[in-house]
Amino acid sequence: MASIFGFKSRDPARDRQTDTSRLDRLAKLLDQIAAEVEAEKSGLENRYRTTATNAAFLVEAMENGAVSSRRSSEVGELTKSILNCERRIAALSRQKQMMNELRHSLDAIFDENRQNGPNIRIDFAKPAGPGTG
Fold first, then answer.
1. How far is residue 133's CA from residue 117's CA, in Å, rounded to a whole number?
2. Nearest to 31 by CA among 91, 111, 90, 100
3. I want to staple 61 with a disulfide (CB 3.0 to 4.6 A). Which of 13, 32, 50, 67 is the partner?
4. What's the rounded Cα separation, in Å, for the pair 7 and 12?
5. For the chain, which residues make up each domain, given as ranges?
6. How far is Cα 49 from Cα 102, in angstroms, rounded to an integer?
7. What are φ and ψ of residue 82, in 5° steps?
């Protein structure tokens, strides 16, 4: 479009394509980060269960006299490890929730762009897997 002052502006469709491309890259990055958080959380939860089980068996064995009470330091270390796992799992849960909220906000922007743009079909990146959006 040309104006009387010689200023030319871009076609709005081109602006929408640029915005869509940018939002799509952001969506893919958010999905990647969410997957990383979920993978770390899942692995940590498995290690947490194993550590908690080991601690329970050790305490039971100590109570039954099957092992020396000198191994109580091991119980202390396992307890410390369990508490650290619980804190990290809680932090990862908060990060996952934040990624879900950001992704939901981004989807709302996609929908807004779709409604404001011409009738062009554009495929947006969507989260993969259950509970990611």
1. 23
2. 100
3. 67
4. 15
5. 23-116
6. 30
7. -60, -45
First CA to last CA across the chain, in angstroms?
Answer: 39
Q: Provide the 10 A C-beta neighbour count for residue 127.
A: 20
What's the rounded Cα separation, in Å, for the pair 132 and 107? 12
Mean pLDDT throughout 107-111? 84
Is 90 exceeded by the pLDDT of residue 17? no
Q: How far is CA 114 from the centre of its chain?
A: 26
Please report, as a single letter, which amino acid is at residue 93. S
Which has more confidence, 124 or 70? Answer: 70
CA geometry: angle 68, 74, 78, nearest 5 deg: 140
pLDDT tens column, 20-73: 899 899 999 999 999 999 999 999 999 999 999 999 999 999 888 888 878 888
Tell me the C-alpha to C-alpha distance, in Å, between residue 11 and each of 19, 110, 114.
13, 19, 16
- Backbone CA torsion sign across 80, 86, 88, 91: negative
